[in-house]
Amino acid sequence: MSESKTDAGAPDWAAAAEARVLDAALPIAGEAGWGARTVQRAARAAGLSAADAQLLLPNGPRDLAALYSRRLDAEMLDSLAGLDPSSVKIRERIGRAILARLEAAAVHAAATRRWAGFMVLPTHAPLALRLQWESADAIWRWAGDKAVDENHYSKRAILSAILGPALMIRLTAGRSAAEAYVGRRIGEVMAFEKWKAGLPKRNLATQTAGALGKLRYARPMHQPDV
Prior knowledge:
Blueprint: H1 10-32, H2 36-45, H3 50-56, H4 61-79, H5 90-106, H6 109-119, H7 125-142, H8 150-173, H9 175-197, H10 204-217
Helix pairs in contact: 1-2, 1-6, 4-5, 4-7, 5-8, 5-9, 7-8, 8-9
């Protein structure tokens, strides 16, 4: 790495280089997928040496995929900048944020389809879960959520489970279908939060687990005898 990249400007160099590589990768990934060859081609197109590409993306396609997810989060927040979240109800805040992220992803639909296929591979499950959690956290923070108890985690867990299916519906069935799906699922989330708020605190963990299972699988999870 050159001396100019090891001084105080290194973080700026890294951010700029990541953006260039991702810009170059998106049209390639739409055809070739999110593999090592795409990373190599995108790095060359961005003007990086092999050594700098390895330094910037040590995990190759996984790092590139993470960059794309975080860019979608940033673009979502940028598109929401003109909206005061406190001016609308909480369910509309969450709905608008999810739809804003879906529209950001749809701009590069071919690359997003290949990205989604890459992320559902079993070997990428931990990364996919982490990125979905980051996206859900960004949405809830923008919406003004300040929960620091178990609500912090349950809200993000439920929203994480909505984001993946919503993206696939947007890519395969279009915006209207995705909007209808998101509206239905947010209704479930709001009902869940209302129900959970009335639970006795001592039973919250057990009953929440059962309710989460019902939301996801449409039937209660088995609860052990106590």
